[in-house]
């Protein structure tokens, strides 16, 4: 069972719980987060209006592939590009939003522009939660500088991503998938799921996929690649995917919203020295396994010196057709 962690824990207990979740599952549910859930409800309505009612022409307004903002079409992305048993791109469409305040970096299509204020507030709430989590992670591994991670995040590369998986018949598993197995490229991801299940996380020790069902007023948080590099694999950026509908309940439109917290272009993703107790955790995962995982993520070796910008660009390039 994916652990649940309350935002209201004392800072010491919070950071300890975070480290435990990050080293075991790489995923946790965050409860009692400082977020106005009305904003999330508003965002579901925005998503519904946009994906189900906007014209194709409107969807493409302000799309900027280079700047990584705007619309991505059905099957345009393949999150698991090396998987040859799945021939098609992912069964989803999405819309990427960059920080909207103080000055928006993209023109939103009219359907989303009318909800500008609530989307902007949701973005800011997510940004602040990620900042707190990054500081707690720094505390959890006893870094002298508690802002070591958070200071590398100006939110320039952060994206709020509205995602829609169109209705699909039950039993299509095999040649297609809603979102292929992947790890996230940034530091941490916050995920909101609207009622419909399908998200699964890989459990290496058990050799199986585990469902991460939507829970009311809980945000799914996962560790992404940058934190894994900084901690030499102590914190795990774990593979996850969204499977095709298994029941009639899942055969409907599935909506989710991800907030990708991603390091700045010049952030060096070099491993930090580890305290003794962390080295012990690290050794539970074989070096061979860690290196294999890094290769999947496009990294040649654990000592490769990448920047946040380089890693992000190379991963994005690999997953878009
Ligand atoms: O839609 C979901 O539940 C997961 C999406 C995801 O993992 C991603 O976009 O990186
Ligand atoms: Fe993901």
From TrEMBL:
Residue ranges of region Disordered? 294-321
Keywords on this record? Answer: Iron, Metal-binding, Oxidoreductase
Q: Kindly indicate whether the keyword Iron belongs to this entry.
A: yes
Looking up InterPro entries in the UniProt record yields: DIOX_N, IPNS-like_FE2OG_OXY, IPNS-like_sf, Iron_ascorbate_oxido_reductase, Oxoglu/Fe-dep_dioxygenase_dom
Residue span(s) of domain Fe2OG dioxygenase: 156-263
UniProt GO MF annotations: metal ion binding; oxidoreductase activity
UniProt key word Protein biosynthesis: no
Q: Which family does it belong to?
A: Belongs to the iron/ascorbate-dependent oxidoreductase family.
Query: What name does this protein carry?
Result: Clavaminate synthase-like protein
Q: Which organism is it from?
A: Meira miltonrushii
